[in-house]
């Protein structure tokens, strides 16, 4: 745990330069716009420790799998979003000495991530080896208005000297991924060009052949006037720049404005990339930095208008939640159904920027409630578009007849995870994809989605479950053998309750969806059934049989669902009884010891109770919560939020808050000592859920919005906004009352603290707490 970020409601602030913290800060201060993103690397050269990271969404490399012991069915590769061109770079030499914070004496260092307006600022004073002192201030952003572009303002002031200065704005594609399996470079050089004031580099990814052109233009202002010096043009393989030589006098300031565009063949004709990049550069440089920054601030303002959560009386909590919302929007904007949400967003290499079940199980609710419904819909369409690959993935494992197994990790629909206990066994992920369809349809009311896309996916997944179970003569039930549940601290178990439950639920939901589409969208019904070659009687007959006879491990005495068949054979003890040195167990224990222990990585039975809470009584949820939570080590950042939501539901307010705190500032305070790898984007969405679904008590039942808010005792008040079926509601909770404002024209009837309540368009409702 670290505590170096200065608390502030709208800004993330670091003061003082601590090289040992640089990688952590590079993650925290990351920028992104859904289409591209980058770690907070420095513009000027830096020879100290740093993880260079510039990413372009969807531009990935299939890095050949590296395993000790190959197993049939393993994916050939692990997909990673690549470190792409360094487009922020501006090398500076003063009197022949490079400005490099690893070599200079640094003072007054400050980094500020302005979340309100969406930019990163850095300032410092550097004393070079020869005593020359410069004051530097840089501001940059990835534009959310024009998501292929970014801009930088970089000014240098000579504090105590007059000397020659050399400035080199550049584009560099000669980059590496630290996580490369075979120390390979992933980009092939194609072409580069430098002309006065401009440069571009074109490169293509090995194997996947994405072509990207990164281009830049710049202008230099010296004492208020644009410098028109000729520059030295540099063109090398994968590199292009201009070197400008001038003189800076004591007290003078020189400012570089650098404009950049990253244009990829994903979105443009491969032969026109340079042309498009040049046009983009012209467009943004004509607008100028100040206007672009203003546009950026306005665009962020409208995002905050939709999604802000205000917490009164707790600045640390306020900063934490805004940081989470900010990063979620930097990662995914929902405009392109080919894109998704990596568990680390654009903030590092870990998890390869690929898609996990995290999206459906954790991230979807945030986008559903804070943005127009097409944003969440695009997340679902992403999986619809991968259905054929999911079918092929299941075929590789021996399944037939259109059974679909969605991958644990993917970029293009193909599985690329390669630990057998996860790749082959963590099949519960398939259920989360079905659940997301249900969650989306119940929240948005967009049932037509089922007809157009959803049903086909549901049939594929249900077919998988129907083949994955087997009949147990001994139990006279259907069982599911050899699985790994969400708790990855148990592998190859039989009858993971959560997996069995979500499997059976999916089949039920698919049957309901079939009925619904048949009645309401008959032509789609015929189209889909034809397309998938559906044998109505035999397939639905099998599903009904599995639903009726599925085995769910349960202990009559304790009256709890069992995580898996053998759970009660374990030595059961609470986490509290472990010694401090044991934790986290994944760093201190052998894997073998972890697997035999009762300790749970993340919500498993409780994940099911959270998803399907309507199927269980409060007493049941409580009993299971009290049984499992004490044995849970929460060593996945996906865990505390589910516990927080359930604790809120159970009225365990302190527990709910304790669990909330574990993720609210997870990255800002580097709780798990791993923020240097990147930020925990999934848990950011989880934190949002802990506030809205937990403290705010938001659920949807029978098409109605329910709110049941309480105020955590550490806070003076909080407010949030949700967009429910195109009605924007502002919910304001203070010590004395709950006030709900309907910001839309249409009336909304909801259940507020258990009471039927009508809030007319533009109206308000107050209720004493
Ligand atoms: C969790 C998985 C999750 C993955 C990516 C793992 O540690 O156990 O549930 O999908 O991280 O966030």
TrEMBL record:
<dbReference type="InterPro" id="IPR017045">
    <property type="entry name" value="Malt_Pase/Glycosyl_Hdrlase"/>
</dbReference>
<dbReference type="Pfam" id="PF03636">
    <property type="entry name" value="Glyco_hydro_65N"/>
</dbReference>
<dbReference type="GO" id="GO:0030246">
    <property type="term" value="F:carbohydrate binding"/>
</dbReference>
<dbReference type="GO" id="GO:0005975">
    <property type="term" value="P:carbohydrate metabolic process"/>
</dbReference>
<dbReference type="InterPro" id="IPR005195">
    <property type="entry name" value="Glyco_hydro_65_M"/>
</dbReference>
<dbReference type="InterPro" id="IPR005194">
    <property type="entry name" value="Glyco_hydro_65_C"/>
</dbReference>
<dbReference type="GO" id="GO:0004553">
    <property type="term" value="F:hydrolase activity, hydrolyzing O-glycosyl compounds"/>
</dbReference>
<dbReference type="InterPro" id="IPR008928">
    <property type="entry name" value="6-hairpin_glycosidase_sf"/>
</dbReference>
<dbReference type="InterPro" id="IPR005196">
    <property type="entry name" value="Glyco_hydro_65_N"/>
</dbReference>
<dbReference type="Pfam" id="PF03633">
    <property type="entry name" value="Glyco_hydro_65C"/>
</dbReference>
<dbReference type="Pfam" id="PF03632">
    <property type="entry name" value="Glyco_hydro_65m"/>
</dbReference>
<feature type="domain" description="Glycoside hydrolase family 65 central catalytic">
    <location>
        <begin position="322"/>
        <end position="689"/>
    </location>
</feature>
<feature type="active site" description="Proton donor">
    <location>
        <position position="488"/>
    </location>
</feature>
<feature type="binding site">
    <location>
        <begin position="357"/>
        <end position="358"/>
    </location>
    <ligand>
        <name>substrate</name>
    </ligand>
</feature>
<dbReference type="InterPro" id="IPR012341">
    <property type="entry name" value="6hp_glycosidase-like_sf"/>
</dbReference>
<dbReference type="GO" id="GO:0016757">
    <property type="term" value="F:glycosyltransferase activity"/>
</dbReference>
<feature type="binding site">
    <location>
        <begin position="601"/>
        <end position="602"/>
    </location>
    <ligand>
        <name>substrate</name>
    </ligand>
</feature>
<comment type="similarity">
    <text>Belongs to the glycosyl hydrolase 65 family.</text>
</comment>
<dbReference type="InterPro" id="IPR037018">
    <property type="entry name" value="GH65_N"/>
</dbReference>
<dbReference type="InterPro" id="IPR011013">
    <property type="entry name" value="Gal_mutarotase_sf_dom"/>
</dbReference>
<protein>
    <submittedName>
        <fullName>Family 65 glycosyl hydrolase</fullName>
    </submittedName>
</protein>
<feature type="domain" description="Glycoside hydrolase family 65 C-terminal">
    <location>
        <begin position="699"/>
        <end position="756"/>
    </location>
</feature>
<feature type="domain" description="Glycoside hydrolase family 65 N-terminal">
    <location>
        <begin position="13"/>
        <end position="265"/>
    </location>
</feature>
<keyword id="KW-0378">Hydrolase</keyword>
């Amino acid at each position: 745990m670290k505590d170096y970020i200065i608390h502030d409601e709208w800004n993330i602030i670091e003061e003082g330069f601590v090289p040992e913290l640089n990688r952590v800060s590079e993650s925290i201060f990351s920028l992104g716009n859904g289409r591209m993103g980058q770690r907070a690397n420095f513009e000027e050269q830096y020879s100290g420790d740093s993880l260079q990271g510039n990413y372009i969404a969807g531009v990935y490399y299939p890095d050949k799998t590296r395993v000790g012991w190959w197993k049939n069915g393993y994916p050939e590769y692990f997909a990673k979003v690549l470190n792409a061109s360094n487009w922020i770079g501006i090398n500076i030499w003063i009197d022949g000495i490079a400005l490099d914070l690893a070599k200079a004496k640094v003072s007054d260092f400050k980094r500020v991530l302005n979340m309100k307006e969406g930019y990163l600022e850095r300032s410092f004073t550097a004393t070079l080896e020869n005593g020359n002192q410069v004051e530097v201030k840089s501001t940059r952003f990835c534009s959310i208005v024009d998501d292929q572009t970014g801009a930088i303002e970089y000014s240098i002031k000579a504090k105590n000297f007059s000397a020659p200065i050399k400035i080199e704005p550049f584009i560099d594609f000669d980059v590496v991924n630290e996580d490369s399996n075979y120390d390979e470079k992933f980009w092939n050089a194609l072409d580069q060009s430098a002309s006065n004031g401009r440069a571009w580099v074109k490169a293509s990814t090995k194997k996947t052949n994405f072509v990207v052109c990164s281009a830049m233009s710049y202008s230099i202002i010296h004492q208020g006037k644009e410098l028109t010096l000729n520059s030295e043009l540099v063109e090398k393989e994968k590199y292009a720049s201009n070197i400008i030589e001038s003189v800076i006098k004591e007290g003078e300031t020189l400012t570089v404005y650098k404009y950049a565009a990253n244009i990829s063949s994903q979105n443009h004709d491969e032969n026109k990339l340079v042309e498009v990049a040049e046009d983009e550069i012209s467009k943004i440089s004509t607008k100028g930095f100040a206007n672009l920054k203003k546009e950026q601030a306005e665009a962020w303002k409208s995002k905050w208008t939709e999604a802000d959560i205000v917490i009164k009386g707790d600045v640390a909590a306020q900063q934490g939640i805004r940081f989470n919302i900010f990063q979620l929007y930097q990662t995914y904007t929902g405009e392109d159904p080919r894109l998704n949400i990596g568990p680390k967003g654009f903030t590092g290499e870990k998890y390869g920027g690929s898609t996990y079940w995290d999206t459906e199980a954790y991230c979807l609710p945030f986008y559903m409630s804070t943005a127009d419904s097409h944003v969440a819909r695009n997340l679902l369409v992403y999986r619809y578009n991968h259905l054929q690959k999911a079918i092929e993935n299941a075929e590789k494992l021996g399944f037939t007849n259109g059974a679909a197994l969605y991958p644990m990790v993917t970029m293009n629909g193909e599985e690329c995870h390669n630990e057998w206990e996860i790749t082959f066994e963590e099949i519960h992920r398939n259920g989360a994809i079905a659940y997301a369809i249900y969650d989306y349809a119940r929240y948005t009311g967009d049932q037509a989605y089922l007809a157009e896309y959803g049903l086909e996916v549901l049939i594929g997944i249900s077919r998988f479950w129907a083949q994955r179970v087997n009949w147990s003569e001994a139990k006279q039930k259907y069982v599911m053998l050899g699985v790994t549940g969400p708790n990855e601290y148990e592998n190859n178990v039989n009858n993971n309750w959560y997996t069995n439950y979500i499997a059976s639920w999916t089949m039920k939901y698919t049957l309901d969806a079939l009925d619904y589409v048949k009645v309401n969208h008959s032509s789609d019904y015929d189209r889909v059934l034809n397309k998938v070659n559906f044998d109505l009687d035999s397939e639905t007959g099998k599903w009904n049989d599995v639903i009726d006879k599925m085995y769910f491990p349960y202990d009559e005495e304790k009256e709890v669902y069992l995580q898996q068949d053998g759970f009660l054979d374990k030595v059961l003890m609470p986490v509290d009884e472990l010694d401090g040195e044991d934790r986290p167990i994944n760093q201190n224990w052998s894997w073998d010891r972890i697997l035999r222990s009762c300790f749970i990585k993340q919500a498993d039975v409780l994940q099911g109770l959270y998803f399907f809470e309507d199927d269980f009584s409060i007493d049941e949820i409580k009993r299971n919560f009290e049984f499992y939570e004490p044995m849970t080590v929460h060593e996945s950042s996906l865990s505390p939020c589910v516990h927080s939501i359930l604790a809120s539901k159970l009225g365990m307010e302190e527990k709910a808050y304790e669990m909330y705190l574990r993720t609210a500032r997870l990255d800002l305070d580097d709780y798990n000592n791993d923020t240097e790898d990147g930020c925990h984007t999934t848990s950011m969405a989880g934190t949002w859920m802990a506030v809205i679904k937990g403290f705010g008590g938001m659920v949807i039942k029978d098409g109605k919005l329910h709110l049941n808010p309480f105020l955590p005792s550490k806070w003076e008040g909080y407010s949030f906004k949700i967009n429910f079926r195109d009605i924007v509601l502002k919910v304001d909770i203070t010590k004395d009352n709950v006030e709900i404002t309907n910001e839309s024209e249409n009336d909304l009837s909801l259940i507020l603290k258990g009471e039927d309540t009508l809030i007319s368009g533009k109206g308000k409702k107050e209720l004493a707490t």
